[in-house]
Amino acid sequence: MRIQFKTSYDHDIRLFPDRHSLIVYGALIVLALALPLLINEFYIGEVTNVLIWAIAGLGLMLLTGQTGQASLGHAAFLAIGCYTNTIMIEQGMPFVLAFPLAGVLTGIVGAIIAIPALRLHGIYLAIATIALSILADDIIVLLEPWTGGVSGKFPDVIRLFGIEIERWTMPVRFYYLVLTVAVICTLFYRNLLRSPLGRAFAAVRDSEVSATAMGVHIARTKAMAFGLSCMITGWAGALMGYYAGAFNNETFSLVISITLLMMIVIGGLGSIHGAFFGAVVVAFLPQGLSILKDGVLGGGVAIPGLETGVFGMILILFILFEPMGIYGRWLKIRIWFELFPFARKDMFRRQKSYLKTERLR
């Protein structure tokens, strides 16, 4: 059993709760750096895909999991980040400037859109963001001189400090680039949670009335959450464009937005780990189903809607039996082993509660 002995209030806002966590995450970083030496280039590409989805998941997690604002329109911000990065590089801007600026501009657009949209709550906000995702498709087609319309665009080779990086011919270099962005976004998210702004996000998520009573400016906090969420999502969109090698108005569809939301629910809402666990499911589920289908039915047999159906079934099972997602299940298993033999089943019994203050909405 591990016991955390806290001697200061600063212990609650440490970057790592204890030395054991520091060692574990340090070992994960070392493993990630050594991964190209352990697996072939095909699986390096799959792990890169997981990291890109995880970055997008972190963006949506900041808004939905941390602030409690449901969004089904984040595919639009993936598209904004992707097209903005590609257009700026085509205009002669180096990648080292275009890539960060693409995320910042996406965040600014998201904050502006949030001003009217975040006056809505729950299902109404979700509907508004769905409309945004559908509208982005039409805007991309209308802005054909810049976006290429239905023909789409082909991103150039990344040139970073004299080094060329390309997803297909140099997958290891591209993997290290995506890994660096993923680590930076994760550290940014973690430090944000430790800040007063991160505490304000959690207060708004739990009860807007109570947060207002504590002096939190609800509209400003929501707008900042939306902007920061869209900034991270914009970076993920730029990397998705490089990973795909070509993109058009159909690349970032409403299905991507729905997949993102289901991904963080399955992984575990409100946690950084949930974004990565959900990304593993999203990235490897199609490969696993393909291998299983070929083994059972043989090659060449196509089953329309198989991936969507299985993914939806997994989501339903998690909502019914494990609302905290994969990370929640892992926490329960870890706590059970740490408290053994004193752990009891009722420790994890779900409590049905209702905040009376939310009736004033």
From TrEMBL:
It is found in: Cell membrane. The keyword Transmembrane helix applies. It comes from the Bacteria. GO terms for molecular function: branched-chain amino acid transmembrane transporter activity. Keywords: Cell membrane, Membrane, Transmembrane, Transmembrane helix. The keyword Acetylation does not apply. It is a multi-pass membrane protein. This is Putative high-affinity branched-chain amino acid transport system permease protein LivM. The gene is livM.
